[in-house]
Design a protein that fits this description.
This protein is α/β, with parallel strands linked by helices. It contains 9 helices and 6 strands, in the order E-H-H-H-H-H-E-H-E-H-E-H-E-E-H.
């Protein structure tokens, strides 16, 4: 879809994990290591199947695809513990994020975070990198009844941004997130990466190379 010169968007909703920070890479490495300890394999296919979804909605997928059965809760708890212990040292803002936020600041475009992760996780990342004050709000797993790909979180984000869904841009990196944005009626932008390749994000209105992509900047003037 040709978007050069497109104007009129009134707000932006940012996903968090994998989009703003390289947390998906840390999760994959940690889950693969832990799966080996449990005698099973954590593959890229499994990773792609749970990306963008709340933890509560990933349990059955993990149970089925890893074959862990009743041990899946123990596995998830172990991965979470290791992940949290490594988060501060491992994770960095994605290329282009700071420049994009500066551009939105200069244009006066409001924005919020809409993540399938917990509020405590989102606040930890944003505070550590001095970014929490650059967003109007955080919507987290605790704030919705239905997780992505249900549109609830992006419908709520549009209300918080005081704009119709069609007037907001959603920035995402997962198929579940893109599906949620499209179902809400928002303009969905996908930023692929190693754990979420472009072919799985074809439903997006725009696919960019990164948050530094000139096409993304052009959406906002």
């Amino acid at each position: 879809m040709q978007v050069q010169g497109r104007f009129g968007f009134k707000g932006v909703a940012f996903d968090l994990d994998g989009l703003m920070f390289n947390t998906e890479e840390l999760y994959f490495l940690t889950a693969r290591e832990t799966a080996a300890e449990f005698g099973c394999e954590f593959t890229r296919e499994i990773m792609r199947s749970i990306m963008g979804r709340r933890g509560v909605e990933s349990i059955e997928t993990l149970r089925r695809m890893t074959g862990l059965g009743d041990s899946v809760e123990e596995f998830v708890a172990e991965v979470r513990t290791k992940f949290q212990s490594r988060l501060d040292d491992f994770c960095r803002p994605s290329p282009g994020l700071l420049e994009l936020l500066d551009r939105l600041d200069s244009l006066g475009v409001p924005r919020g975070v809409a993540t399938s992760s917990s509020r405590s996780h989102a606040e930890r990342l944003l505070k550590r990198h001095a970014l929490i004050d650059r967003f109007m709000f955080i919507l987290s797993a605790e704030d919705v009844r239905q997780g992505k790909p249900d549109p609830e979180i992006y419908l709520t984000a549009s209300w918080r941004l005081n704009a119709e869904p069609r007037a907001i841009v959603v920035l995402e990196d997962s198929p579940a997130g893109i599906a949620a944005a499209k179902a809400a009626g928002a303009f969905a932008v996908a930023a692929p990466h190693e754990h979420s390749p472009a072919e799985g994000l074809a439903a997006a209105d725009l696919i960019v190379r990164s948050l530094a992509d000139d096409q993304l900047i052009q959406l906002f003037g």
